[in-house]
Structure formats: C-alpha cells, structure tokens
Amino acid sequence: MNILAVDFGTKNIGLAWCDTGIGVVFPFGVIKNEDRNKAKKDLLDFIKKENVNMLVVGLPLSLDGNENKNTERVRDFFANLDLKIKLEFFDERFTSRQADRSEGGVSRDEKSAMVLLESYLEKNKK
Length: 126
Hints:
This protein is of the alpha/beta class. 40% of the residues lie in helices and 28% in strands.
C-alpha cells in the first residue's frame, strides 16, 4: 500500500511517502500553499500520479491535546477535497521539533511529514 503523509502549513505542504511492503519512509517533495485551490489541485494530481492508497494528515493539536485554530484550518482544507482514498488524521505534536533535530538535505516540511509517517506506521504496527 502506498501511503502519503502530509505536513500542512500555511506556506508549504510537506510530503513523505512509504510503500508498506518496503517499510521505508522517503521525503516526497513540497507543494506550495500560496493559492488554496491550486494547492488542492496539486495534491489531488499528485495522489493520482503516484497511485497513493491512503493519506495521513498531520493534525496540529495544542499541547493539552485539544483542537485549535490550526486544527480547524487543516480540517477545513481537507473537508471538501474530492478524495477517493482513505484519509486519516494523526496527531502531529512535536514533529517539527523532531524534524529540526534530524539531518539530511531535504526541507523541514518534508522532514516533518517523514516524522509524522514514521510515527503513524510505528503506532499502527502494534
């Protein structure tokens, strides 16, 4: 199964990908989020082109686990997206901090998406 993780930001949408048969998470680029409609179209085109079976979207919760304005913004973006695949929101608290500590030549947005996907896969392994 091809899983795409999304780290949604106001400027950039970081992507990470994994084929669960292989089990390795890869950075997979960034979609600019300057124009909301274009960003949605770009994401849908990407999902179709790469034969993505599932989308894992980082959900920015407050430190106490409650939803906030950022959470609403993410849910709103994906609410009317015409997805034909499974969508799962996943707690993304601390992914940016972990991404900042990781090495590699990819963007912070991609690193955050990678941390998100690795955490999701680890949790669902059990």
